[in-house]
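[Q] Does anyone have a clean structure-token version of this?
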Amino acid sequence: MLMTLGFFVFDMPTAPYQQLQRQTEWRHPSQSRVGQRPAYQYVGPGDDTITLTGVLYPEITGGRLSLDLLRTMAEQGKAWPLIEGSGRLYGFWSITSISETSSELMRDGTPQKIEFSISLIRVDESQIDLLGTVINAGLGAATGLLAGPLNKIRDLTQAVSKLPRF
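[A] Here you go.
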């Protein structure tokens, strides 16, 4: 497991990314002064963004279904905990964009190669304290709710990968 965003696991069967790029900003607005250089004041943290990029080969890795599941998460507009496979907690993040480029198409338009990019923005560090409570309270319910659809997606992905290619 590379990383999880909420209950979505970035791994070989879903969307293994090859690159993680993080940009963190701090705000220093300026105040113009007569005859002097502007004065700067630190006012706090700015945007914290992560971009995950990778290439999917649907016969080996996840494919469109994985990206569609991430799009569904993005459409909810919620913040999700981002946790690295090593256990490092990055905080709560929202998906701001997903781009995909399909190439090496089969006769029916099915891609054999999908390049993707997922952009995330950190939304609220104060919610990190609630993570343990949320996970403990909702893990059982969420696991039950997500197990059925995720198992169907896994089964469908496996069935599609076994179909003959022309």
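[Q] Thanks! Anything notable?
[A] The mean pLDDT is 85.
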